[in-house]
Amino acid sequence: MPTIVLPEGILGERCDKILSQILSLSRTNVRKSFDQYPFECNGKKIHLHEKVYTGDIVTYETIDRVLEKNSKCNLNLDIIFEDKDLIVINKPAGIVIHPGTNIRGKTLQEYVLRHCALSFLGQGGCSGVVHRLDKDTTGVIIFAKSDRAFVRLTRDFARYAIKKRYTCIVQGTPKSNMGKIEIPIARQANDKTKMIARLGGKSARTIWRVLRCFEHFTWLDVEIHTGRTHQIRVHMSHIGHPIGGDLAYGYTGDFAFPRVMLHAESIAFAHPLTGENLSFSAPLPLDFSKTLENLCLTDGKNELP
Which of 219, 215, 220, 218 is nearest to 298 (CA)? Predict the structure, then answer.
């Protein structure tokens, strides 16, 4: 069991208040721990309201275990790769990457932190976060474990030295089998949570290729050469082919998609410390592959290859 020797300056303050400060947890979560497991002070059981002093020795059950048991969403990390500098995860749908304004529930960063330490670098609670995927987007994502990895990966993302490929299902059928979109992206004036393709924004480049056409939808392979917020969603919507299920960016079809049908299929980059060329991929998640099968059945076509 973890042990804490209370530091100087504690002169008879509530145990839950002091533990909240030392462990960087809310007093609510500390109280949950007291409800589940006994805490001891100097070898004797202590209650959360009792007073503690400098030099007291407090032992307790691991806080993370308590939070995990009380969590409404327990996630088993799908780890693709890990070493002392970085960790690559296959992200599921329905979870955001890191805490932020109006973010409720667990984040992927929290679950990664339960598995390993991350770099302390990063702004606004984004420790270890070097790039992002939207809540509904699945697939490959990297977290930096060491500070050197964080600095170099952040630099490489900024220089577009990291290759990212996605796959998505869009509404309608493009007029050609491949295309390139080079339209700047900016925040919408009336809704700061959404983006728009327009002149005056930040440069953005998306290349797409048709994998298979259905009657009302098309399955695409997509490569992005920049990493703007919602880039693929905005660009595909701009050319009249919003991603299936993406109500925020114009999907209007009758087919009921389980989520925004976007998957980060692969990522390739040089290891931030060794320089080794690395490439990782994530298979299509079940909801995506099942949707493709359903589109085949709806069209009365053969099964997917």
Answer: 215
- The one catalytic residue among 134, 156, 221, 254: 134
* 259 and 152 in a common domain: yes
Catalytic, 134? Answer yes
pTM of the predicted model as reported, rounded to 2 decimal places: 0.74
The two structure tokens encoding residue 26: 């809310």
pLDDT tens profile 151-200: 999 999 999 999 999 999 999 999 999 999 999 999 998 888 899 999 99
User: Residue 207: what residue type?
Assistant: I
Same domain, 28 and 129: no
Which SS3 state, helix, strand or coil, does residue 30 take?
helix
Burial of residue 24, with CB atoms counted within 10 A of its CB: 0-12 exposed, 13-18 middle, 19 or more buried = exposed
Strand partners, 165: 223, 266
φ, ψ of residue 155 to 5 degrees: the values are -60, -45
The span from the CA of 225 to the CA of 164, in Å, is 8
| Domain containing residue 56 | 3-66
Phi, psi of 21 (to 5 degrees): -70, -45
Q: Are 185 and 196 in contact (CB under 8 A)?
A: yes
